[in-house]
Amino acid sequence: MAAAGNVKGEETVGHGFDRQYRAGATIFIVSVGLCFLAACGPSHSGQQSAGNEADSKVTAEAKDTTVKRYNLTGKIISIDKAAHSINVDGDEIPGFMAAMTMPYQVKDVSVLEKLSPGEQIKAEIVMGNDGVYLENILPAEKASSPKPTK
Fold this sequence. Notes:
The structure is a single chain. The chain is α+β, with helices and mostly antiparallel strands. It has a domain at 66-139: CATH 2.40.50.320. It contains two helices and five strands; from the N terminus they run ααβββββ. It starts with 14 loop residues before the first helix and ends in an 11-residue tail after the last strand. Residues 44-51 have low confidence and may be disordered.
């Protein structure tokens, strides 16, 4: 049976639904794309007026509150002075990180001269706007050997 208005006598099935579906899908895809582009655009929250020192102080204080510190203990595996980093076999930090070996950046490069592979250390992992790095790197105090009992 030919559809109304069909000159050649071929059947036409579902074209109205297909057009409606395609239009809805196209609108959805374009909407998602626009949302994605808006989310990936530049952030305006960090802009400051150049001459306003009060804004600068408030922004600096806000940055300070985003810094987190964690105590790290572990053994130095290797030192890369050129990359300003050390590879540490770190102990578990409960609630933050399992025990693992990983590289850490070191801001104070002079500390690297005082360290050697195999050395046990204590340090602070600093996580903030400047990235993740180690500070206050010190040799770990070795536990005193228990005195033999008689």
